[in-house]
Structure of LacI family sugar-binding transcriptional regulator:
Amino acid sequence: MHEMNYIPNQVAKNLRKKRTNTIGFLTKEYFPLVGDFLNSFTKIAAEHGYSVNVYFTQTADNELKTLRLLTTHALDAVFILTRINSWDTISSYAKFGPISTWHRVNRPNIYSNFIDHYPIYYHVMNHLYDNGHKNIGHVLSSLRNANTRARTRAIDDFKASYPDSNQDFQLFYHTQTGTGEDAAQKWLAAKNKPSAVIFYADFVAAEFISTLRKNGKKVPDDCLVVGSDNSEIAHMMNMPTIDLCFRNQAHNAFIYLYNELNSDRLSYENQNPHWVDAN
Amino acid sequence: MHEMNYIPNQVAKNLRKKRTNTIGFLTKEYFPLVGDFLNSFTKIAAEHGYSVNVYFTQTADNELKTLRLLTTHALDAVFILTRINSWDTISSYAKFGPISTWHRVNRPNIYSNFIDHYPIYYHVMNHLYDNGHKNIGHVLSSLRNANTRARTRAIDDFKASYPDSNQDFQLFYHTQTGTGEDAAQKWLAAKNKPSAVIFYADFVAAEFISTLRKNGKKVPDDCLVVGSDNSEIAHMMNMPTIDLCFRNQAHNAFIYLYNELNSDRLSYENQNPHWVDAN
DNA sequence: CTGAAAGCGCTAACAG
DNA sequence: CTGTTAGCGCTTTCAG
């Protein structure tokens, strides 16, 4: 019998139970929404007894090394915010532990809590058009991203329905660093400037605004800028944005992992993307 | 002999080695700099074979529960970004694993990679005074924070040296949410408005700016706003800020933990706080 | 130099 | 119902 100040060893428990109650949170790089998302994800995880390990994967090799933590039983499950390797490669790790993401990916063994950007994006264009914006610019993420493809489909369909509108200003980016500034330079250089531009991320939109203002332009008078996250930055910059429910996505992405790992079932949250006015 | 597809079990290794190579990153709540800091901290940790567990402690009880992970050998060490319990209470856990923080705390068993805010703050006030700002406002963090006390000492000493200056506008806050807006309301209501205001965080300064603009004020014409982190937000909002070297702090805070846990020694980085102009 | 064994600290199963 | 034991998978030690 030990003395009364006995402290159980968690690692021994983990070995025995073959569970660490730890989930990996993988993102290629840091951008502001990572923090917000992680905040939501970690809190719901903590409520159900899980802790969250953060990994900034940076390289394809590193991402694989991190996924291999599932095979060594260091992690019970994995959430992927931004990936590097192909979904095929990633999904091959699902047999070692459940994997979820917020990206739109169609694999039987990866839970995807995606939002269909098509209807909301079409709705936003309609809204802008009704407010007199015939020339609408689009700053989009990479086309390898299914959300981006949904957006370009919406653009094409909208263009077909409203031939008098102009959707020619389209930019595609793979990262978020320096992007807003680059887009602003392109806008300043454009001969036929769109009167409104929709962005794939609040942060990029914010950088766009600040670069425009630095160049003596007025926002929203010269250009209405629309963000895409409903994050704090959107409020700060006083821009309209699109709520794509990342908080619910974080919630549901965890719920899936939990349900896969445990016998009891937690229930999913509904999500409802919507336009958010500048405050 | 097993087949060739043998995968070692990390948890068994951890049990044997009595090491998890995992560091806890504790913060009371989320605010934008948390993400930036975590990014720096996690990357340097990963370079040296450590992963980082994030905890949003929220309550005093929760924070203790998290610190107890040191006693159960779930965590090797702990970094504290924002605390809840007293440093006395926290330091009593140092015998179970090294603890570091970026706060200014004078405990033999807690490494504090603090920046002395006194000289840089005095310098900033001087700079503003030389540029014609006789009435300078101060939005500060809690007085239980040693950095805040260094700032108030700088204010008092400056006031003594320049009796014609006005430093009466002083606000103290415990959190970062809604703070900038509240400070802006106070500024708008003030009869004797300071022509420049220095903030304890970029994010709070940004919120202040956006609230002022919403109320028809011009920044920086009506009020020069100075931030305090040199974070992305400062660039976005085009405000001058103070670089307090949080990236170096993240680096050094990790180095300490590493050196305590290992026999080899990594070396610390120098830090040099400085004024950063609006770009 | 190679191979077996002990033990890290826990929990589940089993015996008393 | 209580107490002992086997084994989770690794590493270190010790014997061959």
Observations:
- The longest strand of chain B covers residues 22-27.
